[in-house]
Specification:
Tet_transcr_reg_TetR-rel_C_sf; Arc Repressor Mutant, subunit A; 2 strands; Tetracycline Repressor, domain 2
Length: 219
Amino acid sequence: MGVSDNRTGAQTRGRGRRAWSQVRDDVIGAAALLLADGGPAAVDFSSVSAASGVSRVTLRKHWDSPAALALDAYVASVGVDMPIRDTGDLRADLAAVMSAFVETMRDPRHRRAAAQLIGAAQLDPAMAASFSDHYFGPRRHRLVALLRLGRMRGQLRDDVEPEIVIDLLWGAMYQRILLPHLVGTLDEAAARALLDITLHGAAPTRPAVPTSTEEGQPS
C-alpha cells in the first residue's frame, strides 16, 4: 500500500498513485511541521499519517521507526549541504560554514530539535547510525578535506589533525546548544572568537631568523 486508504482528492489525481518522490515530500513535510511544533516525541506514525494522508503501512515500510523519520525531517529542514568552499582562505572558508550553522541554530525550533534528536540517538543505535551516515558524517568529511587543503598550503601546522580542529570548533558550538545554561548564547561573535582562538593555536610557527651585528656573526 503506497498511500493512505483515503483514495480521494490529491491521492488519486492523474492516472493513479502519485510517484513515491511526491509521497515522500508530503511525509517529510508533515513530519517536519510536527517536529518543529512538538519535538521528536510528536513525530509518530499515526500523527504523520493523519497530517500527510499517507498510510501507516507505507510509513513503516520506508522508515524503521518514528525516530528515523524525525531525523529525516530534521535533515530536510536544515539541509545537508553546507557552504563549504575552498577559496584558498581557510579562515574565511571556515567562518562561512560556522556562520551558516549559527544562523540555522538561531531558530529555536531547529535548536530544540537538534538537542532532542541528539539525546534520542544516545538510546537508539539505528538512529545514531543514521545521524552519522546522513548528517554528521558527510559534513565532517567535507570539513576534514577543507582543513587538509589548508594544512597543505601551510595555513595550519603539519602536526595539526583536522579532526581535532573540527572537535574544538563544533564541540564548543554544540555545547551552547545542548547545555541548558548556555542555550541561546551561540551567536556570530562567539563563533568568531572560537575560530580565532582555534586557528591561533593551530597556526604554523616560523623559525626565528638569526640577525647579526657584524657580518657573519649572529647577534
